[in-house]
Amino acid sequence: MLLLGIDISETQRIKKSMGSRRFLKEILGSEEYAQLEKRGFPAESVAASFSAKEAFSKAVGTGLGSFAFREVQLIREKSGRPRLKLCGKAAELARGFSFSVSATHSGGFAAAAVVGEECRSAFVPAENKIPELRRIIKERPKDSNKGTFGRLMCVCGSEGMAGAAVMSAGAALRCGTGLVDAALPRCIYPIVASRLAEPVFTILDTGHDGKLSEKSEALFLEALAKSTACLIGCGLGKSTAAREETAAVLAKSEVPLVIDADGINIIAENINILKTARAKVILTPHPGEMSRLLKVPVSLIQSDRKKYASDFSARHNVILVLKGAGTVVAAPDGRLYENTTGNPGMAKGGSGDVLAGMTASFAAQGADPFEAAAAAVYMHGLAGDMCAEKLSQSAMLPTDIIDMLPSVFSIIGR
Description:
Layout: E1 2-10, H1 11-17, H2 21-27, H3 30-38, H4 43-60, E2 72-76, E3 82-86, H5 88-93, E4 97-106, E5 109-118, H6 130-136, E6 151-155, H7 162-174, E7 179-185, H8 189-195, E8 200-204, H9 214-226, E9 229-232, H10 240-252, E10 257-259, H11 262-268, E11 281-283, H12 287-294, H13 298-303, H14 305-316, E12 319-322, E13 328-330, E14 336-338, H15 351-364, H16 369-391, H17 398-412
Parallel strand pairs: 6-7, 6-9, 7-8, 9-10, 10-11, 11-12
Antiparallel strand pairs: 1-5, 2-3, 4-5, 12-13, 13-14
C-alpha cells in the first residue's frame, strides 16, 4: 500500500509571513531551522519546507491540525538529497510506513511530494532510522554473487562455548554476508556444523604446547587474507591458541576487525597491543569488560558512559561499542551514537554474540565501521523489541533475535 501527498505553495505568500522569526520557529523544526538559517532563509526553500509538511498531512489523510509543523522537517543532506525527519505525533501517524520526499521550487511556487510505503511489518520504532539504514545497507544488485557481499572470518568458540560460534556466525549469515568462514577448534566443529549448514569451516588443531599447529597457523592466516572483515572473541577463551590468534589478527589483518568478549579480555591484559593493529578495530565491551580495559570500577563507567566511550575511542583509535541500556557507539573522529532500541529481555548470555556477528557482517559488506556498528546496535535492539512483543521479555532468547532479523530487514526494505 502506498500513501501519496502533493502540495504547492506560493513563495510570495510565505515570504510575507517571514518578517518575524517567530513564524519561522513555529513552522520549522530545530534542525530544519538551523540549515535554513545558514543560507539566510531563502523564501523558496522555506516554501518548499512548508509544502513538504502539507504534503505529509495529505499523505496520512489527517490535515495539518493533527501534528505540529515542527514535527515534520524537510532535511537537506550534504548530497542535496531531501529526506523527511518525523517526531512526536507526526511519527506516530507514520507508524507502519516509510516516507520519502521530493521538493522543488520554480517561478514563484514551491512544490513537494511525499510518498509513504507500507512496511511489511506493522512494527516501526518511535525513532525511525529506516532511511539511514537503507543508505548503510545497500540494495543487492541483480547481477550480484556471494563475492559481492563480503567474506567474514569468524574466529569464535572453544570447548564448552560452541554456542557462541553458532550465534555469532548465524547472525552474520542472517545479515547478508556473502560467505562466512568459521575458524574454530576441531573439538567443537561437529556441534557448530550440526547447527549451521551455510558457513565454510577452517578447522584448527593445537599441539602439546597449546599453540596452533604449523598447518593450522597457515590455514588461519590464509583464511584471514581472503576475508573482507574478521570477528574474533565470542566464546574464544584465553588459551595459548586464543592469545596467539588475537595477536595475529591485530598485527596482520588489513580488513576491519570486530573484537568481542574474550578477545577484549586478552587485550585488557596488555592494552598496548592495540597499537599493533593495521586495520580499523571495533571493540564491543559490556561494562564489566570496559572496566577491565580501563582499570576503573563499573560504577564509574556507568556514571558517564558517553564520556568513557568517547575518551577510550579517541585515545586508542578504535570504534568503541559500550553495550548495555542505551548502548553507546563512539568513533575517534568524535562521532557518537546513543541507541534507543532494546529491552531488558535481551540481558541474557548470547545476545552480545549476536550483536558481534551483525556488526562484523555489515563491516564485511563494506559499510563504514562506525556506521556498521551503529546500524547493528539499532537493528539488534529492534529485533529484541519485536521478540519481546511476540514472546515476552522473560521468555525470549538470543537465538530468537536472530530468527527475528528477517522481519527487521523486511521493515527496512532490504
